[in-house]
């Protein structure tokens, strides 16, 4: 992967960059929703907070990136917590819709509230980029994705990670064993928000602009979710696999099918794949691995 | 002032219909149908096609739209939900993907831009000196009639009582000889019909737009959260609270902020009274 820029064109590299970012977002989603089972439809909301914070700070105040990005991440964590905390009171099912509501409302309010600050419907553009050019961006996005992947993987190995998994399986059981599920969920949430914030801030500076459409949008949400789900929710590698798979699927279809119809086909494929493999590609890979290497490996995985 | 009261009341009727159609599936099947908003969207678009593109008369078109909702609901259940039923999260996700797919389909068939629909009944009527669109009045009347019919259906007919039985206790219902699959099927079809009917009116109230399935879904959720699960009265009252609040917001503040107060209300209720007004259980 490190040698990639040497063998592919800039155009393909940009696809990879997008896939890297999608992987970051997918992992961020998965840490919360894939692991605890609380499906969040509000991730674009978090990404948007990060994006807008850093965009507004650099655009209006001209602060340097190494201050605005951390501020954006913190803002995401704080802002997200404020909104999500009450939402966590709803059990899994309604949580999804409440978070969806946040995103929708953000979409509308961002266009209307203080348009001078937020850029209104058109958003802000001409934002400074961290590094320029396809190759440096590729390395940056790849590094960040890798770092986040490793970081999350280490987290999952701790008892915290196991507890989070347990919540998905049976929250009441976890609660009755004495653990404070609310605090655990909150923790998962903050990690998720932090990763989303990092990804969001960096992504906006890669793109150089931000606007309500494209961020607070169902399609964006959909892409993140499907990436995580098809790849394999509840694992670290899953969302990464899913992100790449999805990005390349979209690119593959591009020359064959015009604009709008592409999303339709793509959605149908996603639906069919999900129907037959709700656990994602990764679980399929795991299954193969167990089959091929025999029982001993399976025992070791337990 | 009178304007707000009357408009608020009218809107609330429609919202009540939307909410009831949504919660039916949850009470009976214990799953969230995120594609519910699609019934609303379908209702609107089918009516549009029938009346404005094919020039069919209004009443048959209306029934046709309702039928489209029923069919879509049944298909969704048969093809998608039945297999994934054991995993509620999978159903949520699958229905969400379905909704997005339908949105894409609408974009392909029609176009991404919103369209205005002609009102079912043009013109204005004066109620207590307040100008009210006849169309919206019709929407509210129809909503209440349908809701009333639903209540009768659920209490007096055999099937209706079977639905209630399954929503109270699926296992007990099976022991009593009810077939839960059949009941689920009927419920999904019914939910589709309700959604489509609400959708025809909703589309005339706002606009036809491929993304229009999201907002009613959120409204339905808000009504359930505020009113409380398992309570019809709660849903009705909540629908009115939300309907009035929205009307006040759009009339006095700004039209775009329509959903903001609903969202704040959701948060408020979740923090202060998670069971909702009349809820029998926490969500």
TrEMBL record, chain B:
Principal subcellular localisation of the protein: membrane
Signal peptide start-end: none
Pfam families in the cross-refs: BPD_transp_2 (PF02653)
GO biological process: amino acid transport
Record's subcellular location: Cell membrane
Membrane topology: Multi-pass membrane protein
Keywords annotated in UniProt: Amino-acid transport, Cell membrane, Membrane, Transmembrane, Transmembrane helix, Transport
InterPro entries: ABC_transp_permease, BCAA_transport_permease
TM annotation in the entry: 6-29, 36-56, 62-81, 93-112, 132-154, 185-205, 217-245, 257-278
Keyword Oxidoreductase: no
One Gene Ontology cellular component annotation held by this UniProt entry: plasma membrane
A Gene Ontology molecular function term of the record: transmembrane transporter activity
Keyword Cell membrane belongs to the record: yes
Family, per entry: Belongs to the binding-protein-dependent transport system permease family. LivHM subfamily.
Protein name: Branched-chain amino acid ABC transporter permease
Protein's organism: marine metagenome
